[in-house]
What does this fold into?
Amino acid sequence: MTYFDHAATSFPKPPEVRKAVLRAMEECGNPGRGGHRQAMLAAETVYECRLQCAAMFDCKPRQIVFTSGTTQGLNMAIKDLVSRGDAVVVSGFEHNAVMRPLHAIGAKVTVAGRKLFDPRDTLREFEQAIGADTKAVVCTHVSNVFGYILPLQNIANLCRKRGVPLIVDAAQSAGMLPLSLRRLAADYVALPGHKGLLGPMGTGVLLCGREPQRTLLEGGTGSLSRELAMPDFLPDRLEAGTPNVPGIAGLSAGIRLIENIGIRAITDREIMISDHILNKLEDSGRFRCFSGPLRSGVLSVQPTEESCEAAAERLAEKGFAVRAGLHCAPLAHASAGTLEKGTLRISASFLHTAEDAERLTDAMIM
Amino acid sequence: MTQYYFTFYSLTQAQTALHQIRRRGIDAQLKRTPSELAVRGCGYSVAVEERAAHSAAAALTAAAIAYRGLYREMGGSMQEVIL
It folds into this structure.
């Protein structure tokens, strides 16, 4: 099977990651829950990953909160800052991990910027949509459906100028594009450990640019145990319960790999593979392709002669893993006019070769 | 051997302190805060030998890391000290 669904999760996990997970399962206890060797080794493992994340995302180790994935991080961030009836501005390319929590809370949502690959329009729409009553802006860095790279730094600058908190969904950019919490001055950035950072599923990070008030979970933290209230300091305030130490160990190994290769090299490679696929599909005349100047390695297309689901099934039979449907982002499809049919999403990895891309496009066109 | 304990509520803060102290070439250990000092419940400490206490405190000050307290272990009992 040739895997082109890296936007869902990276696959297969590198041997270094698998080895680190196994080692943690064999050697680590519960961090922060004792002074014995196993607990201390676990604490070292977790802290090493905090240091790596802090270096990669330009923040302090205490600002790194480990989560189960982007969805948990977004829920923590949104539920800290948004209450029922609050006005919130989102981009037209948000995932359900943003839209469902906002819906559950009962927030008053304004969608800004629905034109694909048009950063000027996106920014202009945000400028118009952010008002005096806006309680928060929630914005994805890269559309998980179309790979559109939104003008995040400009949106962050705008939020800072207007004094509005910013929550960033970095599900499709962490490990693939440079990301600095300090430069963005965002309140929260939620990201996965299992996609661009190559870690195991069930890992993620919430970068905290502020001291959280409300907590999503309460429980043991290994600190201030006599007190019923959650600690008021990070990361303990948001890390209730036993952390996923094997997952974090694997994430640490994944980040080490990314550091060794370099984010720039990864981005260039993914875009090169993706462009190769795009060019061949466009030339075939049998696909409607969604692309523009600011696109990551994620590419969405619609076959003109069959449904997306049928095409994905046909490709699976030929040994290619791609994803068809709405990709949990109906808002993005509504913005792009693809809500009825969905799209066929091809998400490349830096590990792909031009030959992989060639074989995939041959299978798609034939 | 007399040891000095820099105490912290947060494991992560204690680890950050340990990292900074070791970066200065000072030998230090991460330990559970002794129960008589952990009045609000569990915490962690960074322990250094007496001769390194001043250098360790300077390393923490330089990195803007605040510790909850500093204690000297003497004959099995802990005594608060101010450097």
The domain at 3-65 of chain B is CATH 3.30.70 (Alpha-Beta Plaits). Chain B touches chain A through 17 residues (CB under 8 Å). The radius of gyration of chain B is 11 Å. The helical segments of chain B are 11-23, 53-62.
